Structures are given as structure tokens and as C-alpha cells.
Amino acid sequence: MNRFEGRTVIVTGAASGIGAACVRRLHAEGADVVAADVSPEAVEKIVAEFGGSERVKGAVIDVRDAAAALALAEETRGRLGRLNGLVNCAGITGVATILDVEPDKLERVMAVNLGGTVNMCQAFARTVQDDTGSRAIVNISSGAGVMGVPNRLPYVASKFAVSGITKSMCPELGPFGIRVNAIAPGMTRTPLVEYMLQDPEAVARIKAAHPIGRMGEPEEIAAVIVFLLTDDASFMTGAVVSVDGGQTACL
After folding, report:
1. Is 0.85 surpassed by the pTM of this model?
2. Which domains are seen in the chain, by residue range?
């Protein structure tokens, strides 16, 4: 399929996990992709996967920097003449309870997961608000953005916030023809959770928590993200879509 031929999409957190899976899927479907991440080495590595393809460009960015976010959006549109999609995969985890969470940790997780998403959405919207044609944003919330999770207070706070701002942006950006949705993945096999997979008891808990009997793969999450960017999802905006193997349905 070439659903994205002639379209440009920025993916943050693009160097690994769900972000990297999105870059691969979008490239396979004909998109011009800007693979953005905070690590220069990681950006170089993901871009190198495509053997010098002109349709994948790297960008080093700290999404906490609003000015850098706007510069990336404007430069992308200026260079390619269009900017059609944004996928906000950049994020970090945060382990703490209400009894022991430290202000610095809470602020850092919120700055990346919430602040970075706001910065990129604002930059995208300001850059393309007067354009026509397909324009869509997909934010990454989490199962922890629709349900409580113990010992993950900073992360839960940030992901509930991402779910909330997605719904708030819907009526604000709709008049410009910009759709904005979020997905809420269940446990997915990414570098953020690899340490858990070394513990057989943790693996058993993960399987038990998902009615489908396993954790998700990045490619499965990317498939839904990419769908939300396509015209097949043209009447979808303001949604937070669970992609979690049934985890939240069975609470």
C-alpha cells in the first residue's frame, strides 16, 4: 500500500520501540518521514536502516524545547513543501508512589511526556493551520492513562494528561481540519520494559493481565497509529484508542 505517498510525517521518539516501528511502517507505505529523537547516535542508527533513502531524514531534538519543536515543524514543511502528520512517541517512564515521589522526578516525567507532547502539537498546529488536505496528530498515552497503576505515579500523571489534552485539542483544531487522536497501548515489548522480561514472575503477571495472553509488539501498535493518520480514519478525532490486548476491558 502507498497510503502516504506524497505525505510527510514527523515521528518523535523515533529511534526505538514504537517510534521506530512507526518510521518503518510509514516508510513502507510511501511517506517522507522525519525520524526525531534526543540522541544523535540513535537518530543516525535508525536513519541508517534505510540505506540512504531520501524519504527518511533524521532530526535531533529535545521535545522539552518549544522553540526547537517549532523550528523542526517549520523546517520540515519548508524543505518538503508539506507536513501532514505528527506522531508523539517521545517519552520516559517514572517509578514512584505518592509516599516517596520526589518533585524533581515528577517534574522531569511531566516535562517530557506532557510538555514535549504539548510542544510538538503546538508547533505542528501553528505550522499547518492554514494548509489544506490531510493533517493529523497521534499522541501516545498508555493503559496507565486510562486506569490507575500503583508505583507509577509520575508516569500515570503524565499519561492521563496526554489523554486529556488530546480531547481538549479536538475542538480547538477541528475547525482547521486537523484531527488529533491518542492511543493507549498495553504492555509492549520496547526497551523501556526489557528489564521486566528478565523476571519470570513479571512475565507471568504481564500475560495474566492481558486476555490475549501476551504483551504487544511495537509493530502492532504502529499499525493502529498509522491507521489513525490515514484518510480511512477521517471521521476520527478526539479519541483515545486502547490497543492493549484487552487489558483495560477486563478491570
Report:
1. yes
2. 8-186+217-242 (3.40.50.720)
